[in-house]
Amino acid sequence: MVIVAVLAAGRGTRMKSSLPKVLHPLGGRSLVEWVLHQVNPLQPQRQFVIIGYAGDAVRSALKDYPALEFVEQREQLGTGHAVQQLLPYLKDYEGHLLVLNGDVPLLRVETLAHLLQVHQERGNAATILTAQISNPQGYGRVICDSQNILKQIIEDRDCTTAQKQNRRINAGVYCFHWPQLAAVLPHLQSNNDQQEYYLTDAVNALNPVMVVDVEDYEEILGVNDRAQLATAYQILQNRTKQAWMKAGVTLIDPASTTIEDTVELAADVVIEPQTHLRGATRIGSGSHIGPGCLIENSTIGERVTVRYSVITDSQIADDSEIGPFAHIRQQSVVGDHCRVGNFVELKKAHFGSHTKASHLAYLGDATLGDRVNIGAGTITANYDGVRKHQTHIGSGTKTGSNSVLVAPVTLGKNVTVAAGSTVTDDVPDNALVIARSRQVIKPDWQPKD
Ligand code: UD1
Ligand code: CA
After folding, report:
1. Which domains does the chain have, with CATH numbers?
2. In a mutational test of the pocket of ligand 1, which residue from 21, 79, 154, 192 has the highest number of ligand atoms less than 8 Å from its CB?
3. pLDDT, tens digit, 9 for 90 and up, residues 35-89
């Protein structure tokens, strides 16, 4: 059993932003959401988030996490002061507290579980996560003996030149036996370079404290400025892309491709350069995506090709061909063996099977049956300036070039719409509709002077 506290009250001055640091987005989640995401599998008994700077913004950004308890740190007097705020909430608590910095987003749950396990097995007062890194600048330095028992943590700015040479750093992830921490917290002093109450001083006051080195130092990157934010994004992307390549996905040019960790890809998917996959996107086996695509919250079937196109919140079934330059959005559903070609936009459009809109069309709020053929320049006029209206197009129907279908309107099955028609009334099955004025020819006609 463990209680978790995430420190998220600091402003993050080095970000130079009006947005509190922990709300800065990192590939689909904010920094603090990443931390919460990583601790979730540990099934904490309670989860506290310490808020302060722009506390209301942090609180409302986390409204989808009902289990969280927010604790306000009115003045940000340091990480130790932040944890002091928990004292009234955990008066009779006898168990362990896992404290995480809200700006350390890349931790793996395995690492946290291991830290907790060592902590509990050894009966330590505290166990802290450390790493040995080549550029320790900015991090607290950790000095310990050969048995990994901590002697001291010193903040970078409080280090002597000799102490700065030490490459073992404090990751900002701590397990505490709460009753022991609670006993030392009220006695913290702020006699350091920043005049702050440091959590690291509470660690220094406990005994025994053990350090656990993280296997992959990339996990403990703390985000303090925009450059570290970009580094964190690269690490995250690398992780995700390596995992998909191992799972049988071809990434032709990983460097120009981004894949959020919420995306699911089948084996034998091929991703071409300049492709970006986001949110709850799934792509089936044998599909070929890119170059130049953005696909967000969409489900793509098997053996689908998509080139230079944008697809959001939509579904594409097996064996369909999308693009180049198609835009499919807002719960559109494209059936199997369909084609959506260049400069075609679908909004809330439903296609049956084998239906084609190959060029220059807008189909919004429309239902199309099977084997429909949409001619170039076909438009559903779905908006009367006040409301959106539906267009229904039966199976086997063909629209000629430059047809305007003024919704609400229903075309039956196997209808043919003559080119240039403006269709305002329903058309029965098997009919030809010509809705344009007849061509007039005046022979030997010349303009008058
Ligand atoms: C901290 C550690 C340092 C460690 C590093 C790892 C201390 C004193 N130092 O330094 O040893 O190497 O993290 O990334 O703890 N916060 C509050 N209230 C405050 C101050 C900070 O909630 O009053 C929160 C911040 O929002 C942030 C976290 O605590 O999420 C860490 O604060 P930050 O100022 O970034 O500490 P570092 O200087 O990085
Ligand atoms: Ca930090």
Report:
1. 2-226 (3.90.550.10), 244-433 (2.160.10.10)
2. 79
3. 999 999 999 999 999 999 999 999 999 999 999 999 999 999 999 999 999 999 9
Tokens coding 20: 């509190």
Residue 291 preceded by cis peptide, ω within 30: yes
Question: Which pLDDT score, from 0 to 100, does residue 299 have?
Answer: 98
- Position 97, amino acid: L
Half-sphere exposure of 317 (CA within 13 A, CB side): 12
Three-state DSSP class for residue 240: helix
Q: Which residues line ligand 1 (CB under 6 A)?
A: 7-10, 22, 50, 52, 73, 76-79, 81-82, 101-104, 139-140, 153, 155, 169-172, 198-200, 222, 224
Helix (H) or strand (E) holding 114: helix 109-122
Cβ count near 234 (within 10 Å): 11
* Phi, psi dihedral angles at 291 (to 5 degrees): -70, 160
The confidence score (pLDDT) of residue 212 equals 97
Q: Give the ligand whose atoms come closest to the C-alpha of residue 140.
A: 1
Instruction: Name the catalytic one among 81, 359, 389, 392.
Output: 359
Rg (CA), the chain: 30
Q: Is the separation of the CB atoms in 295 and 278 below 8 Å? A: yes
Contact criterion met (CB below 8 Å) for 367 and 384: no
Amino acid at 359: H
With residues binned 3-state (H G I as helix, E B as strand, rest as coil), the percentages for the chain, rounded to 5, are 20, 35, 45
Which residues face 407 on adjacent strands? none
pTM of the model: 0.91
* Strand, coil or helix: 199: helix
Catalytic site includes residue 359: yes
Band of residue 449 on the pLDDT scale cut at 50, 70, 90? confident
The per-residue pLDDT for range 398-435, each reduced to its tens digit, is 999 999 999 999 999 999 999 999 999 999 999 999 99
